[in-house]
Amino acid sequence: QTPANLDELLEQVKRDRVVEQQQNQMRESAFLAERNRQAELLAEAKAELAQQERRTQTLNSQFEANENVLAEQESLLRERSGSLGELFGTVRQMANDSRAMLESSVVTVKYPERIAFLKELGERKQQPTIEELRELWLTLQQEMTESGKVETFNSPVITISGDVEERDITRIGVFTFFTDGSYLRYLPENHSLVELARQPVPRLQDVARDFVDADANEWHEAVVDPTRGALMALLVQTPDLKERIQQGGWIGFIIIALGVIGLLIALVRFVLLFKAERGVRQQQKETTPNTSNPLGRILSVYDDKHADDVETLQLKLDEAILRETPAIERGLVTLAILAAVAPMLGLLGTVSGMIETFQSITLFGTGDPKLMSGGISQALVTTELGLAVAIPILLIHSALSSKSNRLIQILDEESASIVARNAEHHSNKP
């Protein structure tokens, strides 16, 4: 409490001094008592230390004795095991080699537990037991037996969409898997089957379906992939006709357009020449000129009632033949131009593709062939398209030329016969 005056303050100070003296005496007594206790604890710790040192010496002696005994036992083990140590080392090596082989085997899809056994056996430091040696032998024998089997079993399959479905799988040895006509690929890293993103041609899919539906005692052909699906996966990546055309780029589309134009022109010309030739053949059997065909129009120039002299008639017939010739030979020049332009466009595509390839090499080097494949594909595909368009057009041009030349030859022959008859008619006149 706060003192009311100086006297009370003096009394309070005296009381506080007495209390502080009492507290100091208590602290001194506690310190002296604790000091005596610390001496006792120090003596106990020294005694415990001496006891532990003696125990340490005993343990060290026992450890050295055990080391000697262990060395003697290991030496005795080596002597008694003899060649078994080398044999067990060979077993571990065989287990590791077999695990690497069986991990890539398609049989592991059905027996995945054997990989864990081989891994444990190959990494173990202790010597394998008789049962483990027999299990290793049976595992290898199982692989050899299964490699000669054709069987159907149920297993998860990763579909094209990424879903996992349970399907009935048909396995041929250790080579090929297929289900419902779809071929599968084995992934050894996760021991799973994956449906090929792109299946082979329908003929091979039909072979797979027929094989599954065949009788157990019936011989039937099948597709075998010795690379366990890797070769099939590369095979189905081969571009089809549409993809090859797309690889040619815009130059390839131009070449195809020119080829279509050439085929249309050739088709029209074949139809017209066929009609003209048929009309000419029919006109040769008739005496009355028919102006619906070239020969009839040429014959209409000559009139028996008003026969001209030979020279005039010759000129009129030549003029009529010249009028018919462009219609007969129409389109041949266009086809010849298309046949010449198509290979040139193919060469242009080749040059463009090679330029793209060299640009890729300049930017990325030659480490990744995929970077150069686009330019090389364009270079080769455009050349192929150019030749594929030019060769048929050349053959069609040759056929049309021969057909038109044959018609023109018929017209020349008929006009020559008219001139000869007219000359004979004039020579017989008095």
Structural write-up:
Helices cover 71% and strands 7% of the residues. β3 and β4 form a beta hairpin. The chain has 430 residues and is α+β, with helices and mostly antiparallel strands. Strands 1-2-3-4-5 form a five-stranded mixed β-barrel. It contains twelve helices and five strands.
Structural class by secondary-structure content: alpha+beta
Low-confidence stretches: none
How many E-type strands? 5
Share in β-strands: 5-15%
Characterize the biggest β-sheet: 5 strands, mixed, barrel
User: Helical element count?
Assistant: 12
Percent of residues in helices comes to: over 70%
Instruction: Tell the overall outline.
Output: elongated
Oligomeric state of the chains present here: single chain
Strand order of the largest sheet: 1-2-3-4-5
In whole angstroms, the N-to-C terminal distance is: 181 Å
Rg over CA atoms, rounded to whole Å, is 52 Å
H/E series, N to C? Answer: HHHHEEEEEHHHHHHHH
Average pLDDT metric: 77
Supply database-style keywords:
71% helix; alpha+beta; 430 residues
Summarize the structure.
By secondary structure, the protein is an alpha+beta fold.
List strands and helices in order, with pairings.
Blueprint: H1 6-81, H2 84-103, H3 113-123, H4 130-146, E1 150-158, E2 164-172, E3 176-179, E4 182-187, E5 192-195, H5 202-213, H6 230-236, H7 241-247, H8 249-285, H9 294-299, H10 310-329, H11 332-364, H12 370-427
